[in-house]
Design a protein that fits this description.
This is LysM domain-containing protein. It comes from Dictyobacter kobayashii. The structure is a single chain. This protein is of the alpha+beta class. The protein has a domain of 58 residues: Membrane-bound Lytic Murein Transglycosylase D, Chain A. It is 23% helix and 26% strand. A 5-stranded mixed barrel has the order 3-4-5-7-6. Strand 4 and strand 5 form a beta hairpin. The relative contact order is 0.13.
């Protein structure tokens, strides 16, 4: 039988056969699909590049990866400073200096601080009161000042000078961190530079275990420096003419931002003072959310009022009790008067 011969198709014929095997409907739909798919892919890729970071940030926030606290807006600075001042008292029948100080100023320690055994102390008291304590007569007017006064302050921490700073010892394998990477140890004492008004700074001597950083807002009560009187080391009165700017104060009832240090030095342990004997202490301050209002004492006065208030000691902790004496500073008379 003769052998059949099948000639090979040319490339052109193969291409023609391929196209004829594709359904005509597919030929029409395919270009349309391509025209739609390309823009869709480009748009999706662009949108996805924004969605993925947003989703990642959402999970990052929910997982609370960062332990850093949310910054709290700082209060405004004081525009008025606390004022050291006095009140007036008119002598009545049977009054003497010790009794007046005990009754009007809660100074039950007066006979210990101003003692006839040390005549210089009684002489100094007579000068401060404006009358000779041995020659009082009814109708005489005395000038009474707060003994060992405390002051309430709020301000921003500018600088920390530590008494005992943590030291980082270098080794060949460890890179030493900069001074800004750690907090000074103030448990043994630090001197803090704190701005309390736009142009007034004070120095606070404080012992605290809190972590302190410049920029923190400091709340504190502190003992005002007393006037220096030769031979009278425990003289109880502050100097009304002393400037707050640059003043060095010993702090108590200390707080940084929203954290109160319950283990900081109590005001009753600042020497010298008569808080335990007198049953409390006088506090000077200025009303307002940036100062005295922080302690939530239950009396009311317009913001910016200079205040002198008696705080009772409850087991060494100072509190205001309704009915305790509160005075406001009167600029015209330059005296404290009842609120």
């Amino acid at each position: 039988m003769a052998r059949r011969f099948h000639p090979k198709s040319t490339p052109k014929e193969n291409l023609h056969i391929f196209f004829r095997s594709i359904p005509w409907k597919l030929m029409v739909i395919l270009p349309i699909m391509v025209l739609l798919a390309v823009p869709t892919f480009i748009y999706g890729a662009h949108a996805g590049s924004g969605i993925l970071p947003s989703v990642t940030n959402m999970f990052y926030t929910l997982s609370n990866v960062s332990n850093l606290p949310t910054p709290t807006p700082l209060p405004a600075f004081l525009t008025t400073l606390p004022q050291v001042g006095s009140i007036k008292y008119t002598i009545g029948e049977g009054d003497n200096c010790d009794a007046v100080l005990a009754y009007r100023m809660h100074m039950y320690s007066a006979s210990q601080v101003f003692s006839d055994a040390n005549p210089n102390t009684v002489k100094q008291l007579s000068q401060d009161l404006g009358q000779d304590c041995h020659r009082l007569q009814p109708g005489m007017v005395l000038t009474l000042s707060p003994q060992y006064p405390l002051v309430a302050l709020g301000g921003v921490l500018l600088k920390i000078d530590a008494a005992t700073a943590r030291q980082v010892l270098p080794t060949p394998l460890i890179k030493v961190q900069s001074q800004e990477d750690y907090t000074p140890d103030c448990s043994k004492g630090c001197q803090l530079t704190v701005r309390i008004t736009s142009n007034v700074t004070v120095k606070l001597i404080v012992q605290t275990s809190l972590s302190l950083h410049p920029g923190a807002w400091i709340w504190t009560q502190a003992m005002l420096p007393r006037k220096t009187v030769p031979g009278f080391n425990n003289y109880p009165y502050a100097d009304p003419a002393a400037s707050f700017n640059g003043m060095i104060l010993r702090a108590c009832d200390f707080q940084a931002n929203d954290t109160h240090d319950d283990n900081s030095t109590p005001c009753s342990q600042l020497d010298p003072n008569t808080i335990d004997t007198d049953g409390g202490a006088w506090l000077l301050g200025v009303t307002g959310s940036n100062s005295l209002d922080h302690w939530h004492y239950k009396f009311h006065a317009p913001t910016g009022t200079q205040i002198m208030v008696w705080l009772e000691s409850d087991n060494g902790v100072l509190h205001y009790h309704p009915g305790d004496p509160v005075y406001r500073y009167d600029v015209l008379s330059q005296l404290y008067v009842k609120l």
